[in-house]
Design a protein that fits this description.
Layout (H helix, E strand, L loop, with lengths): L2 H30 L5 H36 L11 H8 L2 H31 L7 H31 L3
Helix pairs in contact: 1-2, 1-5, 2-4, 4-5
Length: about 170
């Protein structure tokens, strides 16, 4: 097994973990809240956030680091490795490079939605009940859904990246 194969495997494993968390938050987890009172919702958010936050952001960090490695050093991505901005410009005129760029735009979107959910919405959802809380719960559902759509976009364009190599 080469180092590039290992890095790709680590990248894919981190993607599965991150997309799994996003899917869990958007599909089964968010709808469960409608059956709970506000105090129970707050406790559930605090506990789940505390447990998922390190895994979520650890996956993101691993994805960014291994993604950069894959883009620069993996022969499937560029032959030879990218060493200058001119080579990067040349990559972007190919369907491979264009699909990779769109995939990265979706990745940035999922990172922003994840940050918004984890660092802005989740802390506010565990405050004592108040009239403002219902607005935050609605936004949490919307952000979770948008995050899932963006993650699906990442997966779609990841597949496009691979198929553009044919």
């Amino acid at each position: 097994m080469s180092i590039n194969s290992l890095v790709i495997w680590i990248h894919l494993s981190a993607a599965v973990i991150w997309v799994g968390i996003i899917t869990f938050q958007a599909l089964p987890f968010t709808p469960i809240f409608s059956d709970l009172d506000l105090e129970a919702r707050g406790r559930l958010v605090q506990q789940s956030t505390r447990r998922l936050l390190p895994l979520t952001w650890g996956s993101i960090i691993v994805l960014v680091l291994t993604g950069v490695w894959n883009t620069i050093f993996t022969p499937i991505a560029s032959e030879p490795p990218i060493t200058s901005l001119e080579e990067l410009d040349a990559l972007l005129i190919t369907s491979f490079g264009q699909n990779l760029l769109v995939k990265h735009i979706f990745v940035v979107g999922t990172i922003l939605f994840t940050a918004w959910h984890n660092f802005f919405l989740a802390p506010r959802l565990s405050f004592p009940p108040g009239s403002y809380l219902h607005r935050h719960w609605r936004w949490a559902g919307v952000v979770s859904g948008l995050n899932l759509l963006a993650a699906i976009g990442v997966l779609f364009f990841a597949a496009q990246v691979l198929f553009s190599l044919r």
